[in-house]
Amino acid sequence: MSFAQSYAQPHVGKTCPGSLMFSLKDVSKIYRTGDIETTALDEVTLDISSGEFISIMGPSGCGKSTLLNIIGLLDSPTSGDYFILGENVARANEARLSQLRKDNVGFIFQSFNLIQELSVAENVELALLYHKLPAAERRARVTGALERMQIAHRAEHRPAQLSGGQQQRVAIARALVSNPKLILADEPTGNLDSAHGEDVMRLLTELNDEGATIIMVTHSHAHAAYASRIVNLFDGQVVAENFLEARAV
């Protein structure tokens, strides 16, 4: 039995929790280098509803990061359609993608991606600079996000002065400060020890319980179990989707 066949099992469990927000239809992504073509995604169809927490799993090189980049509007599909709140953005220009990304998506990265020369508060405020908000409102939102992540007491510190777990809290605060419709997390526990990793997963679960829609790429089966749905990729294709009735807590 092949790897893909071993994953191919029927959907189980509950239905999606809310209205359809994001939808990929037969999305493929092909990278070309000279005469060489590499298919990163192969006709992927995936619906994402409001309030879902989705874990994306699969071996290295199966297309997980490419899928996340397309969902997050950092890349465009070679073919297929991608709908955001009913708008097909598969062939939108960069200006439109940038606007949609700013209005709809927050990112959490494995390597935190914090700017070492800026304070914690300044790193979080970066996510608001293109929203044309008054300075006072920006500061209030930053304070609120840091308090929510229980890291406000480190607001004036530099990232290098924080532990890995604290830096990831700052990264999560930056992702949520603009109130995005979708939070994308790329291996958010990959650079953390087990205790800090579990702490981050609890934070993501709390955000999801409060209504945030989250898509997370992970290699950890234990952390994937915090989601309400696990999507398995293999060779650029979705080979299984399982809805979880009782997720990890």
Q: Tally of extended strands?
A: 10
The stretches of 5 or more residues where confidence is low (pLDDT under 50) are: 1-16
Task: Supply the CATH class.
Answer: Alpha Beta
Helical stretch tally:
8
Give the proportion of residues in helices: 25-40%
The description of the largest β-sheet is: 6 strands, mixed
Judged by helices, strands and strand pairing, the structural class is: alpha/beta
Look up the CATH topology: Rossmann fold
Mean pLDDT: 90
Strand content: 25-35%
In what order do the strands lie side by side in the largest sheet?
6-7-8-3-9-10
Number of domains: 1
CATH architecture: 3-Layer(aba) Sandwich
Instruction: List the helices and strands in order.
Output: HEEEHEEHEHHHEHEHEE
> Could you name the CATH homologous superfamily?
P-loop containing nucleotide triphosphate hydrolases
The geometry reads as: globular
Could you tell me the radius of gyration in angstroms?
Answer: 18 Å
What is the terminal-to-terminal distance?
33 Å
What does this structure look like?
The protein is of the alpha/beta class and 249 residues long. It has a single domain (3-243), classed as P-loop containing nucleotide triphosphate hydrolases (Rossmann fold, 3-Layer(aba) Sandwich), CATH 3.40.50. The chain has helices spanning 3-7, 64-71, 94-104, 120-125, 135-148, 164-176, 194-209, 221-224, and strands at 20-33, 36-49, 53-57, 79-84, 87-88, 105-109, 182-186, 213-217, 229-234, 237-243. The strands form 2 sheets. A 6-stranded mixed beta sheet has the order 6-7-8-3-9-10, sandwiched between helices. The chain has a 4-stranded antiparallel beta sheet with strand order 2-1-4-5, with helices on one face.
